[in-house]
Amino acid sequence: MTRPAVDIGVLFSRTGSYAAVGEAMRAGAELAIEEVNSDDSRSITLRPHFLDPGGVTASYVDCARRMLAEGHIAHVVGCYTSSSRKEVLPLFEKHDALLWYPSHYEGFETSDNVIYTGAGPNQHVIPLTRHLIADCGRRGWFVGSNYIWAWENNRIMRETLQTAGGEVMGERYFPVGEIELDTVVEQILRQRPDFVFSTFIGESAYAFYRLFREAALRQGLDQPSSLPVASCSLAEPELALIGPAAAGHLSSSVYFSTVATPENARFTAAWRARFPALGHTSADAEASYIAVHLLARALDRAGAADFLGVRAATAGLGFIAPQGRVWIDPENRHCHLHPRIGRSNEAGTFDILSESAAAVAPDPYLVWEYGLPEQAPRPGAGLRVVT
Amino acid sequence: MNAGAIAQNFRGARALVVHADDANRETLAITLRRLGLLVALIEPGGEGPVPGVEDCDVVFFDADEGLGGVFGEAAPPDAAYVAMIGVEAPGRLARVVRQRCAGYLMKPIRASGVFTALFISMNEFAQRRREARVRAAMADRLAGRRTVSKAVLRIMTDSGVDDDEAYRLLRRESMRRRMTIEALACERLAETPEEPGRPDSLTA
Q1: Same structural domain for residues B81 and B20?
Q2: How distant is the Cα of B46 from the closest Cα of chain A, in angstroms?
Q3: What integer pLDDT is reported at residue B144 of this predicted model?
Q4: What SS3 class is residue B24?
Q5: How distant is the Cα of A376 from the closest Cα of chain B, in angstroms?
Q6: What is the rounded CA–CA span in Å between residue B150 and residue A226?
Q7: Per-residue pLDDT tens over the stretch B96-152
Q8: Which of B10, B109, B112, B115 best probes binding to A when mutated, by most A CB atoms within 10 angstroms?
Q9: Cβ neighbours around A34 below 10 Å, total
Q10: Does B112 touch chain A (CB under 8 A)?
């Protein structure tokens, strides 16, 4: 008996400023689609429709409209940046479609039209802050690209650090793509924080890692041990682009290519065989691989492709992913995931320094992460002290 | 004045949603619960006031229907109000203004926007409360000005000091005892009853 084919959209940028990430995400989705289609125990097959918005936010809208309005597709795996996701969301609402969004992001969203398979703030920046406080110290210097990812992550890390009695020694933002970073590198080296938290993306990130390493070397410093740089986005494909300065940096992620599970051994072997030119697997590739597998299981469970039925079928739906068992939280439709801290090595992968013993429940609004601020009135609070 | 800390976590806050049972109310209630709030739902023009509604921190209500007799004879809760607006008609919007809503949501309600309305309205309401406290304190001081003047005169007479020194004594004492200067002035006047002929006496 032939299995019915369900049309799905795959919307990643293989060109443009973050092409390398988009390529890896598309490859992760493609690999999962092939696995689903060759698995006879599944009740459906997936018929993918690939579009490349080229990293241009407005093009995401055009591509999504073609998929949803003209193609009558109800499920799209795609988007990397938050701006692209927010831009296409009204279309998904209008057309009763579901976006399977496979990227770590800054949180503070729970759309009824999105299944989030990447890590949220309590699964990346909070575990990183805890690690830094325990292992490196409490005086941080924040540098990053000037947009939402950097602002929100810095705010969360600043508040967590300050709660622990720590200090932010400096904070600077640069336009996306800026590579003239010598001044800030000098300033950080002068002030000698315990660690640097970088929210740079793309070329700015690579330039910062190189310049910082060189400047530290000129001062005779072993930068990885004395002034570590930490981030929530450094991944395997980027290590190859940074070059010789790529080793020795901290990254917080739910997945590294070096995760030791049987599922990851299978995933990485299949990846190497299928995409030999793409190098190592990465968190974004794994997240889109997870998105497609969860989508296929939801379609199985729902018995039809319609938006409401499939969305209802996602509640608690799980899958043994390369990172470990993951499942969709019925309340906020983000995933229960496995936070880890890794340090980049000479081989272009990460040594895993620590990993969460169990999957961590998603908390996209950080409602449960913090204690509430003191609300009891102080005695004499209405009185002003004058001298 | 002190602008106060910005609240950003509303876990445990109590929300009252006054809206007919439909998809808008459902989306709102689900999203508020995700944000950690305790949510009570009532119908506008329902079967009368619901006990406990006065204990809420934020009220979401249907601007098309209004609050009607939801609170019965009781005073409406002293809380942040957020209007859920369907019809953008001046009459309905006037109701939103009169209710002093600190935030609003356009219908149909989506998950996006709820955190924003909650965040802005709760902080705006907290700011209004702080401002109201400052206004009340100023009104108290204004009302107590005559008492303070009398107490200053009394000290000048009793201690033989000038008005600046008398006021300084009064202020220092009030700070030491952590009470307002007006309350202390009142106390001083009560301790030493008026005597006819004294310069501070009203019956002179």
Answers
A1: yes
A2: 29
A3: 86
A4: helix
A5: 14
A6: 68
A7: 999 999 999 999 999 999 999 999 999 999 999 999 999 998 998 898 888 999 999
A8: B112
A9: 15
A10: yes
- State pTM to two decimals: 0.84
Nearest Cβ partner of B34 from A331, A373, A385? A331
Q: What is the reported pLDDT for A364?
A: 94
pLDDT at B73 over 90: no
Instruction: Give strand ranges (E) for A181-323.
Output: 195-199, 229-231, 250-253, 318-321
What residues of A are in contact with residue B9 (Cβ under 8 Å)?
A: 366-367, 370, 372-373
Residue B157 located in a structural domain: yes
Q: Are A176 and A146 in contact (CB under 8 A)?
A: yes
Minimal C-alpha gap between B111 and chain A (Å): 6
Domain count, chain B: 2
Give the CATH number of domain A5-119+259-336; options: 2.40.50.200, 3.40.50.970, 3.90.330.10, 3.40.50.2300: 3.40.50.2300
Q: Is residue B94 part of a domain?
A: yes
* Residue ranges of chain A that CATH labels 3.40.50.2300: 5-119+259-336, 125-231
The residue from B44, B77, B112 where one domain ends is B112
A100-125 tens-digit pLDDT: 999 999 999 999 999 999 999 999 99
Q: In the CATH scheme, what is the code of domain A125-231?
A: 3.40.50.2300
A103 min Cα distance to partner chain B (Å): 19
Q: Could you tell me if B31 lies within 8 Å of chain A, comparing CB atoms?
A: yes
Residues B33 and B88 in one domain: yes
Confidence band, pLDDT 50/70/90 cuts, at residue A205: very high
**In the numeric block, which tokens belong to residue A44?**
């459906």
A201 interfaces chain B, CB cutoff of 8 Å? no
Any idea what DSSP says for residue A164? T
Rg over CA atoms, chain B = 25
> Residue B121's closest CA among B43, B56, B30?
B56
A137-167 per-position pLDDT tens digit: 999 999 999 888 899 999 999 999 998 899 9
- Residue ranges of E strands in A129-287: 139-145, 167-174, 195-199, 229-231, 250-253
Residues of chain A contacting residue B170, judged by C-beta atoms under 8 Å apart: none
Number of Cβ pairs closer than 8 Å across A and B? Answer: 48
Indicate yes or no: CB of A383 within 8 angstroms of CB of B133: no
Chain A, residues 65-124, CB within 8 A of chain B, namely 89, 93, 108-112
The band of B70, judged by pLDDT with boundaries at 50, 70 and 90, is confident
In this complex, do A109 and B112 lie within 8 Å of one another by their Cβ atoms?
yes
Q: Clarify whether residues B107 and B143 are in a common domain.
A: no
- Tell which B residues from 129 to 148 touch A, by Cβ distance under 8 Å: 133, 137
- Residue B91, pLDDT score: 85
pLDDT tens, position by position, B12-59: 999 999 999 999 999 999 999 999 999 999 888 766 666 667 789 999
A345 three-class SS? coil
Instruction: Tell me if A368 and B11 make a contact (CB, 8 A cut-off).
Output: yes
Asked, for residue B79, whether it belongs to a domain, the answer is: yes
Q: What is the pLDDT of residue A377?
A: 37
Cα–Cα distance measured from residue A274 to residue A351, given in angstroms and rounded to the nearest whole number? 25
